[in-house]
DNA sequence: GATGAATGAGCCTTCATTCAT
DNA sequence: AATGAATGAAGGCTCATTCAT
């Protein structure tokens, strides 16, 4: 009937899925990704069964919550490489974006530290999507002589991930950005 | 009354405390700092009530478990400053020591990420004891012109702590030491 | 209105009912008669609401599933009485048929043990349909002097039913047929 | 201190274990062996955790509930063989005892039909304890020429078990004893 | 002081059943 | 009529914590 159609029935199902994603995102921030299923359901205003229908395992929910943002972050890579004044500027900007995503937005980083078994999926989402993006930027920067250290995109992205994960324990005296900047400086020479 | 006196009763109390510390240290490594109280008691061969008598809260136990090692790490600072070939060498060595402590030995870092509320005590132990030590080394290095970046000991110690915490998710392709080295390089220039 | 008419709509309703019966029969075998409604619906390729429309209670479904076979078993009685070499041979053959039905085919026997309240309907189906059949055979055998024990058809059919029900816990060392044979022997003298 | 002592502490623990066994026996009769843990705990007047402490798995509880009675039944075998007027009389009496145990006392038989996986333990308890007893009686009867059919003790005990299990669906028109008698008659000739 | 039995809140998960579409 | 999404009661299990012995 229209460009938005996805079968009549799915109207409320989609509404619920959306509500669940929003609720989960919000609850993850305050209570962590191990938050009780009940709380997420309550926050979303749905029954618990509805969570299990849409996201059979907790990992499914977590991945879904963050997928959009990971995608956005990935897509920004090539763009920045085109618009920044230099590859290293693109590197700085993309790393900032990634750090923003990690630190500011959703408490995602904590997700990766708890339950490392179950969250392989999340880990994979990250790595699969973002490592190639950073690899391109890094490669450009290296070709321009702006990065000399022998460091892989994987190594770098994990370092940044861990730094931001730790920074969630907020303390005005600690500035994750500064740490990241020092790290990038260390890559340059 | 005297400094050495500790009534007969105290003898097994002390034995128990020691047993609990050892047991907790061991269980923390395998099961994490959130390990069931029962398991720790069982490992120590004491009743659960005994844990609560000696360490009313989990944080008390965690702090006690790591205090010795934190002390050892702190005491190594001045020593290294005296024996190393340069302040920056001392910095490198001490940071390695600290990272060893964090990474290799005890899964301590994870402790700081979980339950950040309850582990203020642990956090404080770290900061109170180790920040001054690193500050001295850092200051010496700065005086020698070997560190130029505007970075505080607190900033640095947290950065290293977070990096090591993240590195507990073991992966041969990731090398926390390399990250730390790059970070220190970034401090030098 | 006519005896053959069943408006067009009824066509797929019937198809669905058939599909449900087949699906239920199949699922009952593998998962027992307490199988989740959802699984039956899925197996039949219909929605769950459709099950409830056609078979408001689980008992309705169970009864419907087995009615055909019970009928077939009932109809075999008079036939066997006509073809067998003696009434007691007919008895043996019919009891074998019944045991086959119970044991081999469908796990039906278990149905009668679980939820005895809700399965009165199933129980009734059995008794109403099969007891008279067995009664006739038994009576013929008694008249021929081939059964002397004072045992009713109901008593006998329940005994066989229970024996087969128990035999569903498969064990090569146990042979329900042997038990039934001994029981019939005991009826003869 | 005394012949009843089993360490001071266990006083209430034992009281609880006893209460649990009684409660479970009673609840098993009315609700079956799949009765909710919560209900058993409530009936016993203890917390749920107490059940899990004493009987980690449901099978443990079920076995414990019935062990006494199985023992009593087993011990009656040799006795009856000594006191009965003939081996076949002993057989009849022991089988009656066993059937009493199964039918009248505790709904145990149902236990063996549900959850056949988890109740291997119960099954084993039965077989290990009772089959040898029946085997002795059967052997005596066979030696006396009072049993001629080629039937094993295991075959017989399972047959009786299944018959009694089925008889729990009470119906005045059905008499499990009669079925068993016919079965024994069938063994004799 | 030490013990460990008991408690019970809290979480996860499954499914029968309803009902909006 | 059919669908299948949603609901929520029900039950299993784990552990932190208390307290009688």
From TrEMBL, chains A, B, C, D:
Transcription is among the record's keywords: yes
HTH tetR-type domain span: 14-73
DNA-binding region(s) from the entry: 36-55
Superkingdom, natural source: Bacteria
Single GO term (MF): DNA-binding transcription factor activity
Pfam short name (any one): TetR_C_43
Keyword field: DNA-binding, Transcription, Transcription regulation
Descriptive protein name: TetR family transcriptional regulator
Organism of derivation: Acrocarpospora pleiomorpha
Taxonomic classification: Bacteria, Bacillati, Actinomycetota, Actinomycetes, Streptosporangiales
């Amino acid at each position: 009937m229209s460009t938005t159609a996805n079968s009549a029935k799915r109207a409320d199902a989609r509404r619920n899925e959306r509500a669940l994603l929003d609720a989960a995102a919000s609850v993850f921030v305050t209570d962590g990704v191990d938050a009780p299923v009940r709380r997420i359901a309550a926050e979303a205003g749905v029954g618990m069964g509805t969570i299990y229908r849409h996201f059979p395992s907790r990992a499914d929910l977590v991945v879904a919550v963050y997928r959009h943002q990971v995608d956005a972050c990935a897509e920004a890579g090539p763009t920045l490489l085109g618009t920044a004044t230099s590859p290293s500027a693109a590197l700085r900007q993309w790393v900032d974006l990634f750090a923003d995503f990690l630190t500011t937005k959703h408490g995602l980083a904590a997700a990766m530290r708890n339950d490392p078994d179950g969250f392989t999926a999340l880990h994979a989402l990250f790595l699969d999507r973002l490592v190639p993006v950073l690899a391109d930027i890094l490669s450009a920067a290296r070709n321009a002589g702006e990065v000399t250290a022998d460091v892989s995109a994987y190594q770098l992205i994990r370092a940044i991930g861990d730094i931001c994960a730790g920074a969630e324990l907020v303390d005005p005296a600690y500035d994750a950005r500064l740490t990241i900047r020092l790290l990038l400086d260390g890559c340059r020479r």
